[in-house]
Amino acid sequence: MKRQSRIALTMASVVYLFLHLPILVLVVFSFNQSKYSVRWTGFTLEWYRALLERSDLLRGLRVSLIVGLLSTVVATVFGTLLALGLTRRARPARFAEGLLYLPVVTPEIIAGISLLLVFAQAGIPLGIGTITIAHIAFNIGFVAIVVRARLEGMDRSLEEAASVLGADELTAFRTVTIPQLAPGILAGALLAFTMSFDDYVITSLVSGTGSSTLPMVVYSMVRRNIEPTVNAISTLVLLGTSIGIWLIFRLSRERPLATGRG
Q1: d(Cα 212, Cα 248) in Å, to the nearest integer?
Q2: What are phi and psi of 32, to 5 degrees?
Q3: Is-contact 213 131, C-beta < 8 A?
Q4: 202-226: buried (b, 16+ CB within 10 Å) or exposed (e) per residue?
Q5: In percent, how much of the chain has pLDDT > 70?
Q6: Looking at the whole model, is its pTM more than 0.85?
Q7: Any domain includes 233
Q8: What is the residue range of 109's domain?
């Protein structure tokens, strides 16, 4: 059994090395003195300081943060309400449940083209507004799935006890349901922000002039030349995304809900 465990551990280590070695190389070369990032010549933080002089990167970061925050707030509210509606029904329609997963499994290129056609038919000019609407559309499903998973393990007896003690539905929802759902709601919001901040395919199809997000700016830089500042900004985005994913896993872990019993 120990030999099998060592073999399994070795195989897992090889797979993880295969997956993360390119990312490790990118992070290491973001501190490389060489301007051409071909070989290691020494340690430097110059490329991180150079990011402050790139107005296009700062502008793209600002757009990404605005779109990410706005879409996260709206998608979190709508996604939570959708999860509550599907879970609290006695018999949720299978068709409605299937529609919940449709935006999640639909390829991004299809979602982007369909949204672009909708905006074109409606005469809506492309820009930050259309990017935000697009991100809300594909993030609602992710938030609803996360919140619904939390709802499935929630103890309804606390809400019933609040009603017995005289609380109306709104008070019980505000003081009992929301605090129990808070980890799931926050996890869904973090996932929505991460998806919005990192998205390129859908954003590139529904963006207009002067509304390029950070991933779009980075992609245009890579197409011209792989310069060290690309490694630096990619490392920072990777760090932020990793922190977000870590928080999502921490908040999404199953936690025993208090039942009030001694």
Answers
A1: 27
A2: -85, 140
A3: yes
A4: bbbbbbeeebbbbbbbbeebeeeee
A5: 84
A6: no
A7: no
A8: 62-211
**Among the listed residues 70, 86, 83, 84, the one whose alpha carbon sits nearest the alpha carbon of residue 192:** 70
What are all long-range contacts of 101-108, with beta carbons under 8 Å and residues at least 24 apart? 101/141, 101/145, 102/141, 103/137, 103/138, 103/140, 103/141, 104/138, 104/141, 104/142, 104/145, 108/138, 108/199, 108/201, 108/202
| Statement: residue 92 has pLDDT above 60 | no
- Among 226, 240, 231, 229, residue whose Cα is nearest residue 64: 240
Question: Is residue 69, in this structure, part of any structural domain at all?
Answer: yes
Q: What is the pLDDT of residues 94-139, one digit of tens each?
A: 777 777 888 888 888 999 999 999 999 999 999 999 999 999 998 9
Instruction: Enter the tokens of residue 232.
Output: 């630096």
In single-letter form, the type of residue at position 155 comes to D
Number of structural domains found in the chain: 1
Provide the CATH number for the domain around residue 131. 1.10.3720.10
Residue 106 lies in a domain: yes
Residue 8 lies in a domain: no
- Amino acid at site 241: T
